Q: What sequence folds into this?
């Protein structure tokens, strides 16, 4: 096992081949999450540039018989063309990031979106899914779970009634105060 030299190579001397390989490998293996962050920033830049383009277009005067200064018009036209050029560069950059992300994720197994999005199911199927990997619940445990769920629904109903009563009370108080004034 050799240790790397502590002194950097001379300016005219190229770096050792092992360092070159590591640098090129690091340049090729860009983290997909960092690519996504770069893509997000690029999209934000595109939105910002587009907003600036619309701002420039809104401030431009139409040549409808009104006198305008040719220098101002040329200046705004130059800014508009610059923004459009930058916008096309940003879209090309976004396309490269998109292609690289797809290339990095090509070997992964696609996960259906239904599995990524949590949704509310009925009570019975939810408990069956949870217990699928475990041993089946005994009938007493199921009865106990159903009782707890029933009590929970009753308490939620009571809380809803109390909130409705409070809302009505506040409404009546506000109505009386409005009549008094």
A:
């Amino acid at each position: 096992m050799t240790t790397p030299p502590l002194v950097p190579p001379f300016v005219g001397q190229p770096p050792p081949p092992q360092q070159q390989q590591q640098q090129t490998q690091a340049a090729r293996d860009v983290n997909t999450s960092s690519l996504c962050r770069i893509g997000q920033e690029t999209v934000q830049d595109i939105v910002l540039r587009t907003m600036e383009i619309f701002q420039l277009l809104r401030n431009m005067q139409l040549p409808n018989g009104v006198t305008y200064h040719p220098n101002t018009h040329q200046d705004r036209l130059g800014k508009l063309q610059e923004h459009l050029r930058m916008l096309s560069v940003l879209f090309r950059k976004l396309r490269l990031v998109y292609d690289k992300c797809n290339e990095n994720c090509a070997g992964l197994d696609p996960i259906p979106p239904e599995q990524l999005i949590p949704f509310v199911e009925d009570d019975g199927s939810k408990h069956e899914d949870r217990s699928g990997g475990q041993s089946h619940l005994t009938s007493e445990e199921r009865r106990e779970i159903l009782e707890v769920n029933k009590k929970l629904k009753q308490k939620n109903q009571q809380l809803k009634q109390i909130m409705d009563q409070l809302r009505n009370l506040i409404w009546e108080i506000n109505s009386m105060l409005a009549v008094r004034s």
